[in-house]
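Exercise: predict the fold of this chain.
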Amino acid sequence: MNFKIVPILLLALLLTSCGKGVDIDSAKLSVKDFHLLLNNNKFKEIYSGSSRELKDYDKEDTLSTNLQAVITNLGKHKESKVTAWKVSTALSGQAVILTYDSVFEKGAALEQFTFKIEDGKTKLLNYNIKSKASR
């Protein structure tokens, strides 16, 4: 092994790990809160806690209609397991993307949540769900 490469690799590792960390656990808690609100038809609360960008894209009625369709087609959320996560940093800030294998009363689904980090808080930026049961 070339020992001159080791310090360079260590320096590169240190430089890539020195960035401001993102609390993945906060995003996971936000997903739990989302499911609790979803199960209780609290769509207005989901909307009010969402990012400005989501509110600019979707009106409250549109989001509520889409979330009601999830409940109608899949039933209430029962359980989820994180299958992937990613942290993205851009000029507009940081985002956390969480992908879940989820189980609802009427079937399974793949859910993907994108949260924007604003002032240390996770705000829903995008929600995507795919299920054969919801088609």
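Check your answer against the key: Residues 22 and 120 are 9 Å apart (CA to CA).
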